[in-house]
């Protein structure tokens, strides 16, 4: 049996890294900060993509594709945008290599310098709004509801697979509207799409909220977000939806003819989720034995392991198992039948646990004779022997139950690690133990920054659906009308 | 009514450009050579992706994702590979911008220079084989069957939307095998997948063949390809599948333990198709009225246009049309119901013709009373009035018929423009008129290059399924055993 991965309590960070490696999800590449997403990891991402893409299309969006490269000058057009991204851009300066004269290999050809350097997109607002200028003339062209699946690059100094990488995969929605109200509705709608996806597909409860001015997207008037709690009590921002006001429309001069024949700047939104969700999925549910996947995102929902001593026994078992596989597939359940004899059943059990397969069936010769099967669920690590009759319906129910149980477990965890704190002393004590701290804040950037400086906690969001409550800021003692969510974050 | 697009006979090149613009498929971006794929164009590409991806998975491949950036030194490891790609690489040299001191905007920060410059991938063999070194230890790890959907960059001097752009989207399969034979079988299998896709989905007949040594992929021992004929008689390479031998295994030291306990280098393949297929699709079928789409790739298969004078009439028509739409959707047919009153029916007819929608239904008040509908097909430009009963089955058949007819038309065109030529005089005369020239060639690069130099015709491929035939080279008079396909090409 292979060595176990480190436990979460022992070393959470090492547990995360080792789990990613052992479950064959991804690895670092030869290029600093850029990851390779391995087939098993990518198949989970594909399931996320498909579900999200369907939701985007149901809400009226179409996909398109815009260039990887952005002229350097575009970035400067929106002042706060360039401020936010200039320091983490990869810059293309030349377009040709040539052989070094000393035979040492290839070098950059200095004569093939670009007239204007190009930025590898860190996000695409600028290049997209420069297109929208040509696409939008009148109110009849609005709303423009476009999404793009793409790779983006933000040159990060400290990287961590899935959570913070120099290149990552994401989707970025970019919409244009004729009124502020409609754009704000879109911003909210897409936040809700993300929240639904996080909760119903990833089985991960999230808080919907507004970012403070400090934490806003560079170029937005307002940033909405969903925040999830990881098992170490830290917060993870899982998706953002930005109300851009008329900022990019003004930067790129995108005007439209209104119904009453006026010229006005259009209103914009942008919203995105990324491969970061893979990190969230891992850290929200997995345990010391490996990955725990919600059935809706599991590339393999059921693994079947025959227990046999020779080919004859395997043939007998397969006679019973093959029709079952057919039935399961017909019911839309993805199933893997592992008949290899390279590894023992016990090794396979551990391996599929590591990979988070929700349901495991095992059948040996005694099961064969008794018409039974051993069924184990990954989330609770329970197993029982049940009749092989009516198995498909049983498994369908079980998958739903597991999906729900994983969600409930995460929701309970979050509840147990969410604290109302009313003094800065209590705040400082609790923040060391982790969790979400619901506390009053006076609404100023100064207080927010001071708390961050002293405790490494940030305001994750101002919850959208929280009750108003009169109180006083834990730091300044000034009046406050609502508790906000503080936490240390990824 | 908007101005017609130029006719193919008038100016084929302008026809192509204008069609792309008017059918809303794509446009040039602010970055030289990089295109924006607009929503309608992208929805066709998505259909291509889905069909191909399903075929890759059916043949046992999994998707993964590898970095956008390649260390410059990687490119040098395979000698002919660097030779082929060094001159068209975009090079990242710096990773930060800063504000210019004179207030002129942002400039590249000279202090943020990368230690080793990075290449934006022109193709991913090098970065993938550097990963495979860690993934492959023994024959049990083989075959490794991986595909990636990605953007790649090849810095092109003369660009043309879809056909030759500096950035394009593609898929690249990269597989590793324990024997040369198995790798060669994979190379052939994937060529056949491409040919099936081209013929059954794109309705575009292709010739399967082998490239000459001159036209081989840089780093391959053998390149197979599919070649299609465009309506101007030029050839377009629509997909390639490469047998890499042990070249990349040797360059990246990828060895495996064989069944008989030896160390050996693994055998590789790579294969790809790109957004170039969009160009092929347009040029293979479209006409002077716009795009002609095979139903299997049409984002909208049926458009329904109600003809009404007021809201009451529209309501009446909709009462009949809405249940029909439901039925069509149930039958898996994508349908658009265009009830807008911003444009007249005639304008809409022209617009959907431009966009290549295969079937158009129109219903006015007389149809409403007679229980009929006017049905028009895009490929033949015929229309008839038929009973509204049994319409779904009628449309299903019609879509199949259109798919077949588009294929047959292209096949007939190719047949009529394929010529057996036996003298260089006849060759030079015919090549000016276009088409595929089946001619004998002596097998030397010298002859191939001389013919190319003198006539701009290249050997598109040595057909895989052609009969052997003794003959003499049209250029050198030396003996030849098989005719090859010459053409001018995109």
From TrEMBL, chains A, B:
Originating organism: Larkinella humicola
Keywords assigned: Aminoacyl-tRNA synthetase, ATP-binding, Cytoplasm, Ligase, Nucleotide-binding, Protein biosynthesis
Name this polypeptide is given: Proline--tRNA ligase
Family of the protein in this entry: Belongs to the class-II aminoacyl-tRNA synthetase family. ProS type 3 subfamily.
InterPro entries reported in the protein's UniProt record: aa-tRNA-synt_IIb, aa-tRNA-synth_II, aa-tRNA-synth_II/BPL/LPL, Anticodon-bd, Anticodon-bd_dom_sf, Pro-tRNA-ligase_IIa_arc-type, Pro-tRNA_ligase_II_C, Pro-tRNA_synth_II
GO biological process, one term: prolyl-tRNA aminoacylation
EC numbers: 6.1.1.15
Places the protein is found: Cytoplasm
CDD domains: ProRS_anticodon_zinc, ProRS_core_arch_euk
Boundaries of every Aminoacyl-transfer RNA synthetases class-II family profile domain copy: 27-294
Catalyses which reaction(s): tRNA(Pro) + L-proline + ATP = L-prolyl-tRNA(Pro) + AMP + diphosphate
Matching PROSITE patterns: AA_TRNA_LIGASE_II
Role played: Catalyzes the attachment of proline to tRNA(Pro) in a two-step reaction: proline is first activated by ATP to form Pro-AMP and then transferred to the acceptor end of tRNA(Pro).
Gene Ontology cellular-component terms listed: aminoacyl-tRNA synthetase multienzyme complex; cytoplasm
Domain notes: Consists of three domains: the N-terminal catalytic domain, the anticodon-binding domain and the C-terminal extension.
Matching SUPFAM superfamilies: C-terminal domain of ProRS, Class II aaRS ABD-related, Class II aaRS and biotin synthetases
Quaternary state and interactors: Homodimer.
PANTHER family cross-referenced by the UniProt entry: BIFUNCTIONAL GLUTAMATE_PROLINE--TRNA LIGASE, PROLYL-TRNA SYNTHETASE
Pfam families from the UniProt entry: HGTP_anticodon, ProRS-C_1, tRNA-synt_2b
GO MF annotation terms: ATP binding; proline-tRNA ligase activity
């Amino acid at each position: 049996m292979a060595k176990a991965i480190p436990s979460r309590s022992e070393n959470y960070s090492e547990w995360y890294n080792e789990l990613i490696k052992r479950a064959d999800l991804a690895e670092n590449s030869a290029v600093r900060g850029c990851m390779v997403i391995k087939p098993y990891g990518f198949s989970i991402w594909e399931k996320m993509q498909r579900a999200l893409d369907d939701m985007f299309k149901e809400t009226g969006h179409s996909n398109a594709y815009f260039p990887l490269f952005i002229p350097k000058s575009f970035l400067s057009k929106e002042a706060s945008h360039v401020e936010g991204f200039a320091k983490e851009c990869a810059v293309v300066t030349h377009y040709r290599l040539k052989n070094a004269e000393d035979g040492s290999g290839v070098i950059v050809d200095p004569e093939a310098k670009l007239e204007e350097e190009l930025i590898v997109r860190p996000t695409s607002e600028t290049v997209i709004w420069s297109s929208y200028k040509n696409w939008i003339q009148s109110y009849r062209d609005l709303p423009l509801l476009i999404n793009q699946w793409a790779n983006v690059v933000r040159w990060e100094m400290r990287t961590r697979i899935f959570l913070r990488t120099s290149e990552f995969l994401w989707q970025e929605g970019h919409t244009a509207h004729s009124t502020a109200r409609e754009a704000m509705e879109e911003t909210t709608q897409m936040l809700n799409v993300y929240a639904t996806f996080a909760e119903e597909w990833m089985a991960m409860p999230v808080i919907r909220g507004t970012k403070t001015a400090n934490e806003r997207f560079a170029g937005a008037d307002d940033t909405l977000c969903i925040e999830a709690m990881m098992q170490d009590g830290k917060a993870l921002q899982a998706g953002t939806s930005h109300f851009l006001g008329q900022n990019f429309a003004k930067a790129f001069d995108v005007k439209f003819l209104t119904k009453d024949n006026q010229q006005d700047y259009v209103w914009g939104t942008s919203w995105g989720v990324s491969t970061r969700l893979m990190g969230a999925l891992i850290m929200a549910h997995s345990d010391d034995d490996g990955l725990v996947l919600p059935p809706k995102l599991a590339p393999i929902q059921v693994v079947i392991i025959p227990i046999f001593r020779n080919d004859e026994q395997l043939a007998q078992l397969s006679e019973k198992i093959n029709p079952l596989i057919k039935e399961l597939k017909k019911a839309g359940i993805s199933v893997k039948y592992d008949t290899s004899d390279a590894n023992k059943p016990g090794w396979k059990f551990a391996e599929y646990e590591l990979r988070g397969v929700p349901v495991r069936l095992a059948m040996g010769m005694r099961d064969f004779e008794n018409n039974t099967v051993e069924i184990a669920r990954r989330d609770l690590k329970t197993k029982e022997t049940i009749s092989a009759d009516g198995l498909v319906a049983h498994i369908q129910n079980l998958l739903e139950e597991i999906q729900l149980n994983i969600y409930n477990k995460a929701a309970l965890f979050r509840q147990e690690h969410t604290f109302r704190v009313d003094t800065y002393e209590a705040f400082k004590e609790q923040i060391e133990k982790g969790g979400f701290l619901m506390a009053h804040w006076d609404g100023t950037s100064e207080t927010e920054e001071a708390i961050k400086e002293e405790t490494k906690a940030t305001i994750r969001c101002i919850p959208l659906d929280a009750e108003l409550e009169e109180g006083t800021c834990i730091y300044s003692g000034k009046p406050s009308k609502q508790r906000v969510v503080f936490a240390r974050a990824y």
